[in-house]
Amino acid sequence: MKKASKVFTVLMFAFLFAPIAILLLFSFNEARSLSVFSGFSLKWYRELFRDTETLKTVRNTLVLAVCAAGISTVMGTAAAVGIHRMRNKYLRSALDMVTNIPMIDPDIITGISMMLMFVFVSRLLGLANSLSFATLLIAHITFCLPYVILQVLPKLRQMDASLPEAAMDLGCTPWGAFWKVELPELMPAIVTGMIMAFTLSLDDFVISYFTTGTGFQTLPIRIYNMTKKTVTPDMYALATLIFFVILALLLLSNLTDREDSQRIRAARKARRAAKGRPPMSPRRQRALYTAGGALVLAALTASLIFAVTETDDKPQVLNVYNWGEYISDGSEGTMDVVAEFERWYQRQYGRPVQVNYTTFASNEDMYAKLSSGAVSYDVIIPSDYMIARMISEDMLLPLDLANIPNAQYISEDFQGLYYDPEGVYSVPYAYGIVGIIYNANVVDPADAGTWDLLWNEKYAGQILQFNNSRDAFGTAMYRAGLDVNTTDRAVWDDALDSLMEQRGVVRSYVMDEVYNMMEAGEAAVAPYYAGDYFTMLDAQAPTVDLRFYYPDPTNFYIDAMCIPACCQNKTLAETFINFMLSAGPAIANAEYTYYASPNTLVYEDPDYIDEMGPEAMEILYPGWDDFARQYNAYAYRNLDAETLDYINTLWETLKIN
Amino acid sequence: MAKKIIELKNITKSFDGQVVLDDICLDIYDNEFLTLLGPSGCGKTTLLRLIGGFETPDAGDILFLGQRINDLPPHKRNVNTVFQRYALFPHLSVFENVAFALRERKAPREEIEARVEEMLSMVALTGFENRSVTRLSGGQQQRVAIARALVGRPRVLLLDEPLAALDLKLRKDMQQELKKIQKATGVTFVFVTHDQEEALSMSDTIVVISEGRIQQIGASTDVYNEPKNAFVADFIGESNIVDGVMLADRSVSFSGHTFDCVDGGFERNEPVDVVVRPEDVDIVPEDKGMLRGVVTSVTFMGVHYEVIVDIGGFKWMIQTTDFVDVDERIGLYIEPDAIHIMKKSEYSGLYGDYASFSNEFDELSDAESEAEE
């Protein structure tokens, strides 16, 4: 029995800490891959400290956490004291319960309700930007408060009610009694509450997601938005660092535990006594407290001023909203395009501009945020079908091409695209084409070339399929020569039959896991985007030999730069778009993202061609005849809600059976 | 006559519509040990808190050396308090707890050290300066609380049932010590307790309080020997209280017998309450007794026996060193000066019959009343 419980304890700890151990290990991995540990390296830590956008979000997160923790601690302590002193028993217990509600409330409800309130109030006040750092801070204080109260109130109840009376009896004013007697007694609880508030604020995602404004992004939001590509290993490094910081805080909060602190205080006193010094007078102690308090307060104010000047004071602000990891950000020696724009603008116009660069994880997220009316962005980079939808809903402004002369360098192939036939609302940024990736050490190249490879029983159990309905159905429909944008249910039923037939050979339905499974050779065949193929190629295990081809027909997508109707500074936005189209930044972005660029300045540039190598150039730019016609025929379009529902029902049938 | 330090004039106080103190008038003199005695809930602690400044009266005045101090906050009163659960500051050492009042006054360091040492030696805690107060025994904490309250040389020290949490032996020692400290410092002590023995042994003056009203003010012996009404007679010591009729001065009739007594000044045939202390009754052979009855119970108490005797349906308590047996018929003899006559009051008939008496029951109700506080 004893042995069993020991084993169980070990297992429990293994279960709890294995993920962290793995994270820690791979943060020191030389390679990018999660499947291969190719050697110890501090590379990702170096990368992390070069990634200015991420560091900025780390700083944002810390500023926010310090402010939220500080303010909610002061307010929470005051509230706890107020509730405790209330004479009316019923009112007191009612308040007690009310303060607990935000804690029990699901985050999602807190988040949505706070966003609604902020939007409502700012409409009432006639403000353009209803969400900002201030709203985020208010939201964080709101959800931190109950935790502080929860810590302080029980401590107050435990405390002998005659303590403050004794202090007043001995000559203290009521305020003096609070400072000199009650506060020191409450201190452990206050510190614990503050640390709790700090950590809660630090890792909050849901509420921040709803209440953050233009240009202020926290780390959890940034990491979430990275899911367009894989999470880069410098995030492992960051997560490892954060883990140790939290661990340190936890230890600290345990030290403030009364029992311990008393032992420490006693030991300190004994040491002083042994050295023949008198016990520290409360005046000295008070001086120490005051110094500590002043330090914390100074840090708070400094960070507040920092935050405020950062977001509000500069006259020129440009808010850019893009996919995660979809711009060259200065990591691994690349160009920091956003910083470069700020410098260039200053040189060019002699005025500073500040770019608030924030990210989203999906078109639908971006759409929801914009249509809530709570934020305002100047430049967004959505995908084709979303652009069509936004145009039809008057959510985009027509571009003034006179301000975007570099648009002339966009290849002629990109004229007459269905989502924006006149090219009035958008300038293409990058495009992607679905192809098939296979491991040539397993797959006979003779079997490659068409969609049939995904159905080939020779490779049963080694084939991967998209884990999202539209893309998965797409593979079957392209294979059978069906229209991927049809509203005819019979056609979709046929596609389902084909997928049902394929199911026997599919190892699993995946999205991001595709990288690790293909890199490690766990699977041999997968449909994915050309740009992502190169990411896998970089990280493939020695026993794996990845190849790529386009089946015909296949899926295309285009992401394009647009200006939303809520734009505050259209000329500046157009200047930014023009800058993004100029050779330097455009090449940097194409090299960073590995996606194909529609910009002739990029794909005709000798250095770029050289850098990418002949194989990549051939895959990324296969030289389409009549690109626009193919694109218009085979790209996914926005389907009506009933068809989408129907597809999802079919998809569930496939997944459940 | 000593100087009046505190005068309470017609003090009334109620909480949530419930009257806790009703028209209290009390003078407290310099250098006296005054005890507020009463059952729990009688208002004695509220009275103390009014003097300390933690409550304000609804009506009436509190005077300190002739000055009205109704609205003076606690920290401006030259009065200190020893709280029931000591209320020592847990985050400060013994030294700092005692030094607290002096630091508040910004006294010079030398004075603080000298005064604190003096106080600690007075309460026999020299050498405990650097101890954490949470690591002291109950008795030691009690001493720290006293030293802390006295270090600022208050004119009056208020003590709110300070010995209630101590065990019996320690309580007896502390009673002695408190008395000694009071004598040595000359500070006026206002001491709250529900323990009548404690009150009798320590006090110069006892103020008996019941239901928010003062029942009697007097020296220990006065209160014991000449209680003003049935409540006081019963609350302080044991009493047999029977209905009687005053036939004439120095002649009273009760239990079917006419007794000589030492009291007078009543109207002829006035109904009165008669108090006879259990220890003042002598047991004699049945035929020689003034009263006759049957022993219903005998309890050995150590020094004496407690004998319950049924006399015509009324149960008397007698404390005696002579042994008698249950069911024995005995006679009782009472000296004239053992009989105390009181005017009828609202408490008449409520106390003084030992029909339902048992030691066990008594202890139970004691425990209950302590738990209530």
What does this protein structure show overall?
The complex is a heterodimer of chains A (657) and B (373). In chain A, strands 4, 7, 8 and 9 form a four-stranded antiparallel sheet that branches. In chain A, α8 runs antiparallel to α11. Chain A has 26 helices and nine strands. With 657 residues, chain A is an alpha/beta fold. Chain A has three domains: 52-231, Orthogonal Bundle (MetI-like fold); 317-426 and 562-623, D-Maltodextrin-Binding Protein, domain 2 (3-Layer(aba) Sandwich); 430-557 and 642-656, 3-Layer(aba) Sandwich (D-Maltodextrin-Binding Protein, domain 2), CATH 3.40.190. Chain A starts with a helix and ends with a helix. Chain B is an alpha+beta fold. Chain B is built from nine helices and 20 strands. Chain B has helices at residues 44-52, 94-104, 109-122, 138-150, 168-185, 196-202, 220-225, 230-235, 359-372, and strands spanning 4-15, 18-29, 33-37, 59-64, 67-68, 79-82, 156-160, 188-193, 205-210, 213-218, 240-248, 251-254, 257-260, 270-276, 281-284, 291-300, 305-311, 314-320, 329-334, 339-343. In chain B, the strands form four sheets. In chain B, strands 6-7-8-3-9-10 form a six-stranded mixed sheet, sandwiched between helices. Chain B has a five-stranded antiparallel sheet with strand order 13-12-11-14-20. Chain B has a five-stranded antiparallel sheet with strand order 15-19-16-17-18, with no helix packed on it. Chain B starts with a strand and ends with a helix. At the A-B interface, α7, α8 and α12 of A face β6 and α2 of B.
